[in-house]
């Protein structure tokens, strides 16, 4: 690792994706990738979200809130206690598609709910409603580098504030005809609760930029997933956490990669 290095720790993890329902179920599979088999992502209802917002929220919002809740619960941290960083390559493409259809119709009537959900920080807004949080929030998009951009931002905020930062990454498929141009196969989301270094029960993590090539996943199936969905580019880090061994790896940042040093859980 070269240049400025950010030292933090990971106190909580959440994950949701093909064949991965939560961290408790996913960790053994990521330790032994031959046990993993792909299955359509089933996005549960985020119980923390009030019923009115549940009806309005899209799949991407629900997936993001589910993994955020997992990470906070694992860390034993109140949901309203952390600054948040939400990152996504494409936000809510289903809502984008619906708005385009509405604007292409003779009536050109746009649903107010669709319009509200179209903004890139919609997941952050729903999370703050659900968690009743008044903490600051950042929402990022950096195309295929969105995971790296989000992790770098979250680590920098954690270092500068000496306080917990919740990172949430999520991407969902495009509907046709946009799917033909951007064929994301399924929903994938993960969350990391970053804390200042030295916390017991957390994985030490050092973050820095690098020009080295990205680390591949341990199995061909998981690596295909990593390549196909921008949010799944965090899979090599999730595999390292599941193994709970000190290691070095590089996350794919679409040319702006991140070098990570992960320690065993303290």
Description:
The chain is globular, with a radius of gyration of 18 Å. The chain has an 8-stranded mixed β-sheet with strand order 3-2-4-5-1-6-8-7. It has a single domain, classed as Thiolase/Chalcone synthase (Peroxisomal Thiolase, Chain A, domain 1, 3-Layer(aba) Sandwich), CATH 3.40.47.10. It is of the alpha+beta class. The chain contains 9 helices and 8 strands. β7 and β8 form a beta hairpin. The model has no long low-confidence stretch (mean pLDDT 94). α1 crosses α9.
Structural shape = globular
**For the report, how would you describe the main beta sheet?**
8 strands, mixed
Number of strands: 8
What do we call the CATH topology? Peroxisomal Thiolase, Chain A, domain 1
Task: Summarize the structure in short.
By secondary structure, the chain is an alpha+beta fold.
Task: Based on the model shown, name its key terms.
alpha+beta, 35% helix, Peroxisomal Thiolase, Chain A, domain 1, 266 residues
Give the topology, please.
Layout lengths: L5 E11 L6 H9 L19 H6 L2 H17 L7 E5 L5 H12 L7 H6 L4 H10 L5 E4 L5 H16 L3 E7 L16 E8 L7 E8 L9 H9 L6 H9 L3 E5 L5 E6 L4
Parallel strand pairs: 2-3, 2-4
Antiparallel strand pairs: 1-5, 1-6, 4-5, 6-8, 7-8
Helix pairs in contact: 1-9, 3-6
């Amino acid at each position: 690792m070269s240049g400025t290095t950010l030292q933090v720790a990971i106190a909580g993890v959440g994950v949701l994706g093909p064949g991965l329902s939560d961290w408790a179920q996913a960790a053994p599979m990521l330790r032994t990738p031959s046990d993993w088999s792909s299955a359509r992502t089933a996005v549960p209802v985020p119980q923390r979200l009030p019923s009115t917002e549940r009806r309005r929220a899209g799949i991407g919002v629900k997936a993001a809130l589910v993994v955020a809740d997992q990470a906070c619960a694992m860390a034993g941290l109140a949901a309203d206690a952390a600054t948040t960083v939400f990152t996504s390559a494409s936000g809510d493409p289903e809502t984008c598609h619906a708005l385009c259809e509405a604007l292409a119709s003779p009536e050109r009537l746009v649903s107010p709910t669709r319009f509200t959900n179209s903004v890139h920080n919609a997941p952050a807004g729903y999370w703050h409603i659900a968690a009743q949080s008044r903490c600051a929030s950042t929402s990022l998009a950096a195309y295929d580098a969105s995971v790296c951009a989000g992790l770098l931002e979250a680590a920098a905020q954690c270092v500068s504030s000496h306080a917990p930062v919740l990172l949430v990454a999520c991407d969902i498929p495009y509907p046709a005809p946009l799917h033909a141009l951007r064929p994301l196969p399924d929903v994938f989301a993960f969350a990391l609760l970053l804390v200042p270094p030295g916390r017991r029960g957390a994985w030490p993590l050092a973050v820095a930029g690098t020009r080295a090539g990205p680390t591949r996943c341990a199995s061909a199936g998981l690596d295909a997933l990593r390549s196909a969905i921008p949010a799944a580019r965090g899979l090599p880090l999730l595999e390292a956490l599941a193994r709970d061994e000190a290691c070095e790896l590089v996350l794919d940042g679409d040319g702006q990669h991140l070098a990570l040093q992960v320690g065993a859980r303290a």
